[in-house]
Amino acid sequence: MTTGYQNHFHTPNPFTEEATPTTAGHGYFYTYGNALFIMINANNYNAADHEALIKKAVYESQNLCYTIADMKQGTLRNPKGVFYMSSNSATGSKFYELIPQQQDYIAARNQDWRPTYSVIRITKTSFTIDTYDVETGKPIDESYSIIKD
After folding, report:
1. Confidence at residue 7, expressed as pLDDT on a 0 to 100 scale
2. What is the pTM of this model?
3. φ and ψ at residue 53, rounded to 5 degrees
4. HEC states along the chain?
5. pLDDT tens-digit profile of 2-57?
């Protein structure tokens, strides 16, 4: 991670134990209210490093992950355990080709080579991600939400 980046951004709970670190930095995690945010170093292609970071951030006893069949695009109500949501906001150098076959753990994916940003809203009973096109401000997908009644 460059000194300039470190001078501008605080990365709490850095995961410096990566087996294959990159010059782009490392993953980290933090909590905000009842939500746990995990930032994965996507420049590191070592899935074992990503898994180790997630295990560090999430207690093993709570790691009851959902499969993609548990949620269709939209809303998941009253989940038990942990459900992972990822917003793929990107610009410029972070555009990548999608592999031809969609992974079975991904509900939806998009690559139209346009910059995007995500808005995350958290309340006592909900967590919602909306992703928008930077130039038009239009949503690129439906909202994804976790609701706890």
Report:
1. 67
2. 0.54
3. -65, -45
4. CCHHHHHHCCCCCECCCCCCCECCECCEEEEECCEEEEECCCCCCCHHHHHHHHHHHCCHHHCCECCHHHCCCCEEECCCCECCCCCCCCCHHHCCCCCCCCCCCCCCCCCCCCCEEEEEEECCCEEEEEEEECCCCCECCCCEEEECC
5. 666 666 667 778 888 999 888 877 888 887 766 778 888 888 888 999 999 988 88
